């Protein structure tokens, strides 16, 4: 079957949820038995998210092949269940860089290089390459930003050209925010209609409208908007903002958007869509009554989306145990031995997820000291595991000056350090980026949680547990339970005699999805929900 392309555009306001809608469409098409891939077209000039501010764009999400991208790609993995790669993210910066590389190699044979056709051809090539020669039945393409923004023009023009070239194999789903009139409480239709006109000016037209609102839009108002926008009434979808983004696939399915896509693109149905597992997980989340109070410690606690993947991994894991998390963000830069008890009072468990960097490191060490001494279930990921080892060395081994060489280059006890092979690289290099293999020791808490001994998890860090101190740590009760089979670098540690005290060099939250909840988070939540394990 020839590959179909679904373009998801946004209008009226920034972030109306285009990524959630696009991921939900992919989820539904997968449930119909089709081969699906996704691509996110981001108008930022940055080639990736490595240099983006956490406060501005949220967490840096890492794909399995080591690409640093924005948190929205996490929605695609969690909702659609697809394993993303660098091919699934297109930024203006990466497109321009590619075109410039072509110029410098002489690929254009001296021609004048312009936005059209050279930049738009590169965009189209990136999008269509995901079809893998027809192996994918659908490619869902999210056009980030808001229609009318100058940044969006190259992507919209590429979509226009594809629609002209491929006809009914392309479809546009336009997602808009619908406000409410103060005087009458009726939906405000005019902004959506203006965004539709802007879309038409770019040479596209909506085949379906997805209306995001706080209060919902009545059938009568949807029919009126359909008539004014030139869209069939059944293709106007009421998708009010919900308590969880995981309701969106069911909302779109209930209003037959997936069936409309098949009808519009002349795609014969393959199998009846199976959303039973999804509905079960969603019901678990919505019906949960018991609360678990969980603290998330990190230096970017005040940034709204700094730890989105951790939060979502906890939500779906709690749902499996009939619970819902009450999450407390705790700024590691404000923590010390004197303030940690007040900050952690009443919490059932702690997740320490410090990003690579110096600020907040000592606060995480104080947090982990309190958790270990008070036997509070604790999961430390990424640099959080480094803090866990430093805390043990200082307060159990008696190496009071132990530290990471990132914090103190000349420390007497470098329990966290660069390995010799790493020291030849530039300091700014992040050498462990993406998925790496890990072999677990049998009869350990971590191995029991995974249910297997060989795993693969994603990393985003440079410094490692210094293997010269491995014997001392294990003698003090901290078992090194996971290591990379090739480099022998330590991947996971756990403390014996504790309810649940585990550290990982990798970031397990990046592998957690709605239908495949991460085993470490499931086991961690089980320790909170069931008491002593």
Report on this structure.
With 533 residues, the protein is α/β, with parallel strands linked by helices. Helix content is 35%, strand content 22%. It has 18 helices and 23 strands. The strands form five sheets. A nine-stranded mixed β-sheet has the order 13-12-14-15-23-22-21-18-19, sandwiched between helices. The protein has a seven-stranded parallel β-sheet with strand order 5-2-6-1-7-10-11, sandwiched between helices. Strands 16-17-20 form a three-stranded mixed β-sheet, with helices on one face. Strand 3 and strand 4 form a beta hairpin. The chain is globular and about 75 Å long.
Q: What key attributes describe this structure?
A:
seven-stranded parallel β-sheet, single chain, 533 residues, alpha/beta
The end-to-end distance, rounded to whole angstroms, is 52 Å
User: Counting H and I runs of at least 4 residues, what is the number of helices?
Assistant: 18
Q: Could you state the oligomeric state of the chains shown? A: single chain
Structural class: alpha/beta
Radius of gyration: 25 Å
Strand content: 15-25%
Which blocks of ≥5 consecutive residues have pLDDT under 50?
none
Helices and strands in order:
Blueprint: E1 4-11, H1 18-31, E2 36-42, H2 54-57, E3 60-62, E4 68-70, H3 72-80, E5 89-91, H4 92-105, H5 115-129, E6 138-143, H6 153-166, E7 170-177, E8 179-180, E9 187-188, H7 190-201, E10 208-212, H8 219-229, E11 236-238, H9 248-254, H10 257-264, H11 276-287, E12 290-298, H12 308-320, E13 323-331, H13 340-344, E14 349-352, H14 361-373, E15 378-381, H15 383-395, E16 402-404, E17 413-417, E18 432-440, H16 445-450, E19 454-461, E20 464-465, H17 470-475, E21 478-483, E22 490-495, E23 501-504, H18 519-530
